[in-house]
Design a protein that fits this description.
alpha+beta; HIT family, subunit A; five-stranded antiparallel sheet; 2 helices; globular; hydrolase; Diadenosine tetraphosphate (Ap4A) HIT family hydrolase; hydrolase activity; BURP_dom; HIT-like_sf
């Protein structure tokens, strides 16, 4: 599990650890309760909390990183628990890098432990801001 950015009674939002990929703004949204059956095993309350946290994560990334896109995916292939990916696609990402596989960008700018810690501190501030993060008009 990577650095925690936001958590409440039902959901946790983390940044992906560098050991799993070296791209800034790649977040996981997960229920606190461990589920092995994926999306169908979430309670209605967990599903609502996941949706709200994922939308908030996308807006936080958009505000902090101003990426070209913010994508989200749920695959359920590698891990036996539910987690939703919410990740930024930088403006400089080559068009031949698939939207769902940003790690295939071999020449991505360096992103190290210090940069991750600084980014996570800024993202935590945005998550903890009591003012609602609303989409642009």
């Amino acid at each position: 599990m990577g650095p925690v950015l936001f958590e409440d009674d039902l959901v946790v939002v983390t940044h992906r650890p560098l050991s799993e990929g070296r791209l800034p703004g790649y977040l996981f949204v997960e229920p606190r309760r461990h589920t092995t059956g994926g999306f169908p095993d979430l309670t209605d309350a967990e599903g609502a909390a996941i949706g709200q946290a994922a939308a908030r994560a996308a807006r936080v990334l958009r505000r902090e990183l101003a990426p070209r896109y913010v994508f989200s995916k749920i695959t359920g292939i590698t891990w036996e628990h539910f987690h939703q990916h919410v990740f930024a696609r930088d403006h400089d990402t080559p068009d031949d890098v698939p939207w769902h596989s940003p790690d295939l960008w071999a020449d991505a700018p360096p992103f190290d432990t210090d940069a991750l810690e600084r980014l996570c501190a800024r993202l935590r501030e945005r998550f903890s801001d009591p003012a609602p993060i609303s989409p642009p008009r």
